Amino acid sequence: MTNTIIANQRLYNQHISANPFMQPVDVLDWLGAVQSQDFASAKWAIGLRLQNATDTSVEQDFNAGQILRTHVLRPTWHFVAPADIRWLLALSAPRVHAINALYYRRLELDQDILSRSLTIIIQALQGGRQLTRDELQAVLEQAGIPAATEMRLIYILMYAELEGIICSGARRGKQFTYALLDECVPPTRPLEQDEAAARLALRYFLSRGPASLQDFAKWSGLSMATCRAALEAVKSQLQQELIDGQSYWYSGSLPPVNNQTLPAAYLLSIFDEFICSYKDRSAMVAEAYARNLNAMGNALTAIIVVDGQVIGTWKRVLKKDKVQIKTDIFSAVNETGDCAITHAMQRYAAFLKLNLQPE
């Protein structure tokens, strides 16, 4: 299996290059979670994997609670499906709390303050109320919980998310709101930790394979021991291939990817799962650029992929009824590749329901 095959199989398995889904929640059911700290880009990460999606239609599903946004897996926001949010939080919250512990101490957020904050937040949101971050800050301060500094408030709210108390509500204009998780999602059967880890591992390798154990550990944020045990529990449902001394795991039920049949180019969002799902990105990025991505920890810019390879970056400039897409191509492409990039730009403009303005 060559790097080109690995990269194109990942595009296929992530439903970027083939078999688009119908609804945003279908994307999350398959991928498990989609990184979403940059909200606008994360909507496109979902839209890219859907048939005929628009920015408006994805946001409508978000506002309706069909997809949720919370801190889970690693200390960052992810889109998750309502059916998955509880077991994902139960699995990953202890690890994220451990990572956050230093900040809790620095911000003088001891267990008493955090517990009192949860009680206050629950009382403020009961009955279907959805409040913005500023409104919750005012509620906390009125109840005697100082939350004036931005970081202190962020960690109080993240703690409430990780404890399964709050999740995303509908947007109010451009502002995000919080709602009570219990009022948004019915109770679900709790999973034992090993069952939850195995479920996450199977979903990861089916949707993102070929991938390594190290890739799964980096993406999930779980300990290597937990990841190893989870892979052991599901490996009978996967196919394995040893490449340059590294074991790669993936679904054996999907047809092999023929590179010539795939759409050639994609504009991927900041933090798209095609990049952020892997510790080792060398199959998709030339060595010089892979070092930069690894040093940053994530793709901190939107990338252009042609034939499975990262060949440049892009950014948008929004105007009244147009979008201009500026590109920085660092790896030469032929005329066919140029045409494919233009098609990818047109697809993104259609997602925004704007006309594409030439650069």
Descriptive account of the structure:
The chain is α+β, with helices and mostly antiparallel strands and 359 residues long. Among the domains are: 40-184, no CATH class; 263-357, no CATH class. It is 48% helix and 16% strand. The strands form four sheets. The chain has a five-stranded mixed sheet. It has a three-stranded antiparallel sheet with strand order 1-3-2. The chain has a three-stranded antiparallel sheet with strand order 4-6-5. Strand 12 (322-329), helix 15 and strand 13 form a beta-alpha-beta unit. Helix 10 crosses helix 12 and helix 11 (213-220) packs across helix 12. It is globular, with a radius of gyration of 21 Å. The model has no long low-confidence stretch (mean pLDDT 92).
Note the gap between the termini. Answer: 38 Å
For the secondary structure, the number of strands is 13
| Unreliable stretches covering 5 or more consecutive residues | none
Number of discrete helical segments: 15
Task: Give a quick account of the main beta sheet: strands, pairing sense, barrel closure.
Answer: 5 strands, mixed
In sequence order, what are the helices and strands, one letter per element?
A: HHEHHEEHHEHHEEHHHHEEEHHEEEHE
| Strand portion | 15-25%
Alpha-beta classification = alpha+beta
The rough form would be described as globular
